[in-house]
DNA sequence: CTGAAAGCGCTTACAG
DNA sequence: CTGAAAGCGCTTACAG
């Protein structure tokens, strides 16, 4: 046990003003980079700030200015899932990097399922000037009404029926899925199965739609469609089930590389050869795509860039600029060994 | 392009007071759960809050109370490293879980190398009531003086020469390394190499010390000691170098499972059998330890629990409670196939 | 149990 | 270029 040392009081504007022999208004002007301050007053203030190690109190500043200079990145997933999915890491990285070059701070909010209302209150309580929302599930109504109170930008199309304008940065998931499926069809395969993503998310729905379009365009019917949750475990399990049920297929499209990774493992365990027996493609060009056996042919999206754009759009909106509601990013077909 | 819709103004205490027909003081009391409010006044206020969807402004509250009800978790690593290391994920998870059960919010701060001063200013600017600091490098002096301004709790011993009281949650790294090394020695191995961690961190230094102690206690001398950075890549590279230099060893202790994972790959590539030719152990019982070939015998620390304890101690300190400066957590030897 | 009033530490027209 | 003063939205003794 130790004794509680007294907390050193933080220097205030007032103290700086006294030491510099000017008014608080002048100190405030120096701190905020106004040019309407004479050189010697500025010098005195700057020295006083240094001597007192003064840092402006954010709460006071926020209250006076009506802005906080910080934005939130909300991930409505639990912590375990957040860390397991390389997609999140990349988006955070991109956003963090962009924000680092601005006057804003990025606050990462993992809204645990335990109390989503806490996050909503935080957002509504004037802690941030705007919010980035990732991985939005339709059932999650938490943010539906926030759009009218706070600028927001979504990563991935929301399924919200919200009346407000919704700003989204996304890829064309339908086209991406169509393209990945066509790679399989081009191999001459005719019995195509899909392991789809959650159907309460735009990305989950749209990738299924794209698969169906490609299959039908080729005059075929899907051999099987199963719904997973984007994780390797779900891909593995679903593939085991398909094999166990003797489903007949020679092509497989998975809505995420993570699920593809799991499915590939299950195929290998069953002695089914890829791509000889089954041609496989997926969406996401992440570490799972690269480290699977064989490496996956995928549609690359660029989540780091997505995070960057999201942050850029949000900050522009906060500053009153007009930005497009929809930003659709390009994707890229990456040919590896699984197709 | 879209038109900028007008932002709906957030309801204020004042508005709630008017609608409920009471003073602002009474509204404040209801919001803060004071019991000195008559039932009917309370009812009226609660209804007004509901109707106006009122959420207290945090900045104003912070300013008035002198506290923010939020704490920061600072990780002085870049985003890529943060996401690559399962240790961080677990600590965050533990801390987030503990904080979720309190009135506090957890803010995750990835202090990019780009501008560490920004983080310091944030911490000093009254944004949070306290800070958790992870993975502290000796060279990083950013937080040295913050301890007198803000309650802080470190994850892992700091090498700071700071005069303030320092609160740390850690394992006994020396004992852990000694124990892991003794497992190898018990196999009758006499030529022990170590891949150590960064020597500017407590965990890096102490695990090397423990290794040396165990080796000397057995009347031996280390066969080789190389310094890595805890990542799989560094373990892989160092092991390639040892093999390339024909270093003669029959035992290997790595300061992290990640480095052990990489070293095991390099050993396999060189056709060296584990544990037949080389007996290997490591610290950290994470996904790398479990998925390496063969699975690693390790000393498990419990980072999730560490995060929990860190958060608990910090919040207690904020609330003025006395807590011990040092919290040393137990570890556990996990026997797998590599020793 | 309740309200009037001061105060938290800033910013920002306004006047000079 | 500079300062006095009002105001941001809360909380909290103080008085009743």
Description:
Chain A is an alpha/beta fold and 339 residues long. Chain A folds into three domains: 13-56, lambda repressor-like DNA-binding domains (434 Repressor (Amino-terminal Domain), Orthogonal Bundle), CATH 1.10.260.40; 70-172 and 304-331, 3-Layer(aba) Sandwich (Rossmann fold); 173-300, Response regulator (Rossmann fold), CATH 3.40.50. The first copy, chain A, contains 13 helices and twelve strands. In chain A, strands 2-1-3-4-5-11 form a six-stranded parallel beta sheet, covered by helices on one side. In chain A, strand 8, helix 11 (257-269) and strand 9 form a beta-alpha-beta unit. In chain A, helix 10 (232-244) packs across helix 11 (257-269). The first copy, chain A, starts with 12 loop residues before the first helix and ends in a 5-residue tail after the last strand. At the A-B interface, helix 4, helix 5, helix 6, strand 2 and helix 7 of A face helix 4, helix 5, helix 6, strand 2 and helix 7 of B. Chain A binds a DNA duplex (16 and 16 nucleotides) through helix 2 and helix 4. Chains A, B: This is LacI family transcriptional regulator.
Helices and strands, with pairings:
Two copies of one chain form a homodimer.
Chain A (H helix, E strand, L loop, with lengths): L12 H8 L3 H8 L7 H14 L5 H8 L4 E6 L3 H6 L1 H15 L4 E6 L5 H9 L5 E5 L17 E4 L12 E4 L1 H14 L5 E5 L5 H16 L6 E4 L4 H13 L6 E4 L2 H13 L9 E5 L3 H5 L5 E4 L2 H16 L7 E4 L2 E3 L5
Parallel strand pairs in A: 1-2, 1-3, 3-4, 4-5, 5-11, 6-7, 6-8, 8-9, 9-10
Antiparallel strand pairs in A: 10-12
Helix pairs in contact in A: 1-2, 1-3, 2-3, 6-13, 8-9, 10-11
Chain A binds a DNA duplex (16 and 16 nucleotides) through helix 2 and helix 4.
Protein name (chains A, B): LacI family transcriptional regulator
GO molecular function (chains A, B): DNA-binding transcription factor activity; transcription cis-regulatory region binding
Keywords (chains A, B): DNA-binding, Transcription, Transcription regulation
């Amino acid at each position: 046990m130790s004794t509680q040392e007294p907390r050193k009081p933080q220097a205030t504007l007032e103290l700086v003003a006294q030491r510099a022999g000017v008014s608080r208004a002048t100190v405030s002007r120096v701190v905020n980079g106004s040019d309407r301050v004479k050189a010697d007053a500025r010098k005195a203030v700057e020295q006083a700030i240094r001597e007192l190690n003064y840092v402006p109190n954010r709460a006071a500043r926020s209250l006076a200015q009506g802005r906080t200079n910080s934005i939130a990145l909300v991930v409505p997933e639990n912590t375990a899932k957040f860390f397991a999915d390389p997609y999140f890491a990349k988006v955070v990285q991109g956003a963090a990097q962009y924000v680092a070059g601005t006057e804003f701070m990025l606050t990462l909010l993992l809204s645990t399922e335990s109390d989503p209302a806490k996050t909503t209150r935080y957002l509504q309580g004037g802690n941030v000037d705007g919010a980035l929302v990732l991985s939005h599930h339709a059932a999650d109504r938490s943010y539906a009404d926030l759009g009218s109170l706070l600028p927001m930008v979504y990563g991935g199309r929301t399924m919200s029926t919200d009346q407000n304008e919704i700003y989204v940065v996304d890829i064309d998931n339908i086209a991406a899925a169509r393209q990945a499926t066509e790679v399989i069809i081009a191999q001459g395969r005719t019995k195509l199965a899909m392991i789809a993503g959650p159907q309460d998310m735009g990305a989950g729905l749209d990738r299924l739609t794209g698969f169906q379009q490609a299959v039908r365009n080729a005059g075929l019917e899907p051999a099987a469609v199963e719904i997973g949750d984007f994780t390797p475990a779900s891909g593995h399990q679903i593939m085991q089930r398909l094999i166990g049920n003797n489903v007949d297929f020679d092509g497989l499209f998975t809505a995420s590389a993570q699920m593809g990774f799991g499915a590939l493992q299950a195929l290998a365990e069953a002695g089914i050869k890829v791509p000889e027996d089954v041609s496989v493609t997926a969406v996401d060009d992440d570490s799972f795509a690269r480290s699977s056996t064989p490496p996956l042919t995928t549609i690359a999206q660029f989540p780091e860039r997505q995070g960057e754009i999201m942050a850029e759009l949000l900050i522009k909106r906060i500053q009153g600029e007009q930005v497009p509601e929809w930003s659709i990013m390009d994707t890229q077909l990456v040919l590896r060994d699984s197709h």
